[in-house]
Specification:
It is elongated and about 85 Å long. The longest helix has 48 residues. It is mostly helical. The protein is 86% helix and 0% strand.
C-alpha cells in the first residue's frame, strides 16, 4: 500500500467536502443578502453549478485514487483506470478555467454598465 497516495486521496476527499459545504453555505447566505433579481441571474446559478461540480469531482477523484490501492495490477485495467482519473482532473481544470473566464466577463460587463450609467448622469440633456 502506497501511503502517499492514501494521504493525497484523503486530503482530496476532505478538501472536496469542505469546498462543497462552503459553496452551499455561501449560496444560502447570498439568497438572504441579495435581491431576487440579482441572485437569480443565470451567472450566479451557473457559477454555483460549476463550483459544486468541481468540488464533487475532486472528491470522486480522491475516492478513485484511494480505490486504486486495491485494483489488480492488470496493465490494461490499471491504464484505463488512471486514464479515467486523469480525465476527471482535466475536467476539473476545464471547469476552473471556464469559471475564471465567466466571472471575469460578468464583472467586466457590470463595470461597463456602471460606467455607462455614470456617463449618462454626468452628461446634461440636449435641448
Amino acid at each position: 500500500m502506497d501511503w502517499t497516495t492514501v494521504a493525497v486521496s484523503l486530503l482530496l476527499i476532505a478538501v472536496s467536502a469542505g469546498l462543497t459545504v462552503l459553496h452551499v453555505r455561501s449560496r444560502r447566505n447570498d439568497k438572504k443578502q441579495l435581491h431576487p433579481g440579482q441572485f437569480g441571474s443565470r451567472f450566479f446559478k451557473k457559477q454555483f453549478a460549476r463550483r459544486v461540480q468541481i468540488s464533487l469531482i475532486l472528491g470522486i477523484t480522491g475516492i478513485a485514487m484511494l480505490g486504486s490501492q486495491w485494483l489488480p495490477h492488470h496493465a490494461l485495467l490499471f491504464g484505463w483506470y488512471w486514464l479515467a482519473i486523469t480525465a476527471m482532473v482535466l475536467w476539473i481544470l476545464f471547469l476552473g478555467l471556464m469559471d475564471i473566464f465567466a466571472t471575469h466577463r460578468h464583472f467586466a460587463k457590470e463595470h461597463h454598465d456602471q460606467w455607462i450609467q455614470q456617463v449618462k448622469q454626468e452628461t446634461p440633456p440636449k435641448s
